Amino acid sequence: MNKKNLMTLADIAKLANVSTSTASRALRDNPVIKQSTRDLVQGIAKEHNFKVNVTASKLRTQKTNTIAVVVMLERKSGQVISDPFLMEILGTIADELTKFGYDMLLTTTKTATHDWYSYYYESKRADGLIIIGQGEHDQRVESLANTKLPFVVWGTEIHENSYTTIGSDNRKGGFLAVQHLIKQGCRRIAFLGDINHNEVEQRWLGYQDALKEADLPIEHGLQIKTDFTSNDGYSKLRDHLLIEDQGIDGIFAVSDAIALGASKYLFEQNIDVPQKIAIIGFDDIAMSEFCSPSLSTIKQNTAAGGRLLVKILLNKINQQPVKSQLLDVEVVQRQSSSR
């Protein structure tokens, strides 16, 4: 076909009797456009062998149609991107971005540059940023609030900061976990987690709320600083039981990964779970149901969280009003805490 006779996006739109912007969205299979319209536009494009010039489109609109997702992983924590909880929420985000015609650029704070605004936004690498986690009060997140970069954070709302967050009700989750263990007869409950992380700090406050409600003492010696890994859950519980305290009868681990590591140590020591020590985790990752004993946990709605992160960010990109949102949590009782 002669170049003079090549179809343009405007030609496709005219044949479909829709606007150019609608035709563009339909060709990207954007769910905002009715399925019948998408089918019509895509059929006309196929009939005329029309292909979208992605490079030209980006130059014209000054948009990349890419969202960067940065996972807050700190070297000292030992947590990796293959963590089951992270994989679940990242999978939902990827699926949701695809629905709206966006690519996902995935990185972690172990490799990301310090100046996120310049690297992602000014350089036109991404139209916006989704940040998973807040780290230990990472200044890179806080500094973004004063830039033009649209971004949203999976984490705990911090009132002194002005950025938008989507996250679980961590304080309620901590309360429900410990309240459940108390109802099972536990009285001295160890807390496995690192309260330097904002979300974990909220779970620690919920832990204290439940003890206060039950008129049980808060023993700070039972707060065992633990990273988000099964290895650390195993080793920190081992060290605590061998060196400091053998009188605990319950464990609240701030992640299922930590809980699984602690459970493995107790199994190796022939300590009966749950009769001698009951355990509850946090997240409700898939393997929690299939380990032995199956793991009681606090369920986070990662599917709803992933969808909301994308929705809120796209609203920000389109300059629509947004606000932080808190997702509900619930106890999932399984064998590890059922007495």
TrEMBL record:
Residues 7-61 form the HTH lacI-type domain. Gene3D superfamilies: 3.40.50.2300, lambda repressor-like DNA-binding domains (1.10.260.40). GO terms for molecular function: DNA-binding transcription factor activity; transcription cis-regulatory region binding. PROSITE patterns: HTH_LACI_1, HTH_LACI_2. Keywords: DNA-binding, Transcription, Transcription regulation. SUPFAM superfamilies: lambda repressor-like DNA-binding domains, Periplasmic binding protein-like I. It comes from the Bacteria. This is Transcription regulator, LacI family. It comes from Colwellia psychrerythraea (strain 34H / ATCC BAA-681). The lineage of its organism: Bacteria, Pseudomonadati, Pseudomonadota, Gammaproteobacteria, Alteromonadales.
